[in-house]
Amino acid sequence: MYYICCMNSEFVQNWFSQVKKGTLSYIILIILDEKEYYGYELVQEIKTHTTLEVAEGTLYPLLNRLKAEGIVDSKWVEQESGIPRKYYALSKSGKATLTEMQKIWSALESAINKLQK
Amino acid sequence: MKRIIFTNPAAQKIYDDYIKRVTRCIRLLSADDQRDTLMEINSHIYEATNAALSENEIELLLDTLEKLGSPEEVLQPLVAYKKTQQATRTFNPVHILQAMRLNIANGAAYVILAFFYLLSVSFCILIILKIIYPSHTGLFMQNDRFVAFGFTTELRGGLTELLGQLFIPVVILLMGALYFLNTLLFRLLKKE
Questions:
Q1: Phi and psi (nearest 5°) for B51?
Q2: CB contact under 8 A, A55 and B74
Q3: C-beta separation of A77 from A87 below 8 A
Q4: What are the residues whose beta carbons fall under 8 Å from the beta carbon of B21, sequence distance 6 or more?
Q5: pLDDT tens column, A52-77
Q6: Are B74 and A57 in contact (CB < 8 Å)?
Q7: What is the ipTM score, two decimals?
Q8: Which of A56, A72, A78, A81 to mutate: most B Cβ within 10 Å?
Q9: Domain range annotation of chain B
Q10: Which of A39, A92, B24, B66 is surrounded by the most beta carbons within 10 Å?
Q11: What is the sign of the dihedral through the CA atoms of B102, B108, B113 and B116?
Q12: Could you tell me the domains of chain A?
């Protein structure tokens, strides 16, 4: 109880937003590993599987960056509505990147678990 | 880009205004990047407003746009990143200056970059001044002591210009070195 009362909420919030920023690209890669998604659908998928409150607009600069780095591929797909969807999928390099990130994440997770015991 | 049509005129105006703001925010990008960004934002608005159950268009649209965020804030990193890419790809001074302005908030490295670039521009001006005012532009020494490198209106007695006709080649070499350093720094920053 004492710890809850004295918690520095501002520090925790800042730390959490840093964690969020750092893990969002990892989360996106995990989701895209399953199948291709268009922007809005990807946002919904993130919301369904995580508790992260992501400003939806910030996702597009990140997807653009991932594309420029060659981690994801994108293509426009025409729709009956006349408003096409841009689908994103993991590239070959993206799959290798994700495997490497998963190794790092697992190592970090077990290190933290050990420390917390 | 196909415009989304709303039945409610107020919703249509809100949508059109938002698209105008997006267009304004991305005007520095290449035509392809502008079209791509606009189409993506438009697609998001369309999908979000069509997926929702509510029939109140205004409410739906406002909720969608609020979740997307203000274009000025949300698109800034995208514009800065794409502009930097364009600048490193084309070496066009206009793109380089625009990229520097957009990235200036990213840190001191960009301030150094801006300084180097301004120095290159100053050297370019010095070459023009050397052609127009040859005796007033150069490397000036007085009694074996360095006085100035550049342009001076006042030619005091004892002041000698050392480089003469070599001044322009030396300045061109300095400009080349600065441009090389700038490009190198730009690429390093892009890799971050």
A1: -80, -25
A2: yes
A3: yes
A4: B70, B71, B72
A5: 777 788 899 899 989 989 999 999 99
A6: yes
A7: 0.85
A8: A56
A9: 9-74, 91-191
A10: A39
A11: positive
A12: 22-116 (1.10.10.10)
